[in-house]
Amino acid sequence: MKITSVASAAIAACMAAACLCAFAPAANAAEGTITSTKSFPAYAQVRQNLMAEATSTSVEDGSNWGGIESLNVPQTESQAEKEAAAQKKAEEEAQAQQEAEEATQTAAPAEQSVAASRNTYRDTVTTVSAGAGASVDAAYGLIGQSMDCTMLVTLALAARGIDFHGWPAQYANIPGAQVVTDGTMQAGDILIWGNAHVALYVGNGQAIHGGWSGGTVALAGLDVTTSEYSGYPSTVVRIP
Questions:
Q1: Tens digit of pLDDT for each residue in 75-110?
Q2: Which of 3, 59, 71, 137 is most open to solvent, judged by the fewest CB atoms within 10 Å of its CB?
């Protein structure tokens, strides 16, 4: 009985070993035939040059991309242009300074002439009335201002309390005035050149004129030339 059990066990072991040997080659054969496949969709368009820049585009109808901007870019100056501009500015400043100096030099003699004439008038002021002196002082104070000849004489008369204004020849009709016929002149006399001009005599052969050389009040001589008259005054009017 014991021998039979041992024999059965040996037979079972041999059969198990035979099965293992049979399965091993089959497994190796199966591993050698495994395959894998994958498919991709077809793509017809081929891009030849991926770095090329697009030269056109399409836009939907009715699309609004805004307006076209207008850029105002200032133009820069070159070094030569900057130097030329600086030189031009320096020349203009030099010319302006020269003109200012010339104007000052021209004005100085005129101011000296006014001062000298006024001093002459003051030296002989005792020979004229107080009213005439007031008119002369007022006329000197108006030198350089802009007004015509009749307004100058009117303001000079107002300084002595006389209210009168008219055409040049009408100043011979001032109430209380006298037309001088002896050829003399005194400071404060009114000088008339026909109906063209009127001025106030201040002595020393000079008078203060309105509307003179550009319309300003100025001290000048007695020889006057206008479009209507030329020469010395035709009438001398004195107010006592």
A1: 777 888 888 888 888 888 888 888 877 766 655 555
A2: 71
Provide the CA 7 distance to its chain's centre, in angstroms. 131
Task: Report the chain's C-alpha Rg in angstroms.
Answer: 60
Q: Are strands 235-238 and 224-225 parallel, antiparallel or unpaired?
A: unpaired
Confidence (pLDDT) at 189: 96
Terminal CA-to-CA distance of the chain, rounded, Å? 191
Helix (H, G, I), strand (E, B) or coil at 160: coil
Instruction: Judge whether 147 and 215 are in contact, CB under 8 Å.
Output: yes
3-state secondary structure of 237: strand
- CB count within 10 Å of CB 36 equals 4
What pTM did the predictor assign? 0.50
Q: Per CATH, is 130-238 categorized as 3.40.1110.10?
A: no
User: 190 and 201 in contact (C-beta within 8 Å)?
Assistant: yes
Domain ranges in the chain are 130-238
Of 203, 20, 45, the residue nearest 114 (C-alpha): 203
d(CA 65, CA 217): 70
Residue 207 φ then ψ, to 5°: -140, 160
Residues β-bridged to residue 199: 191, 209
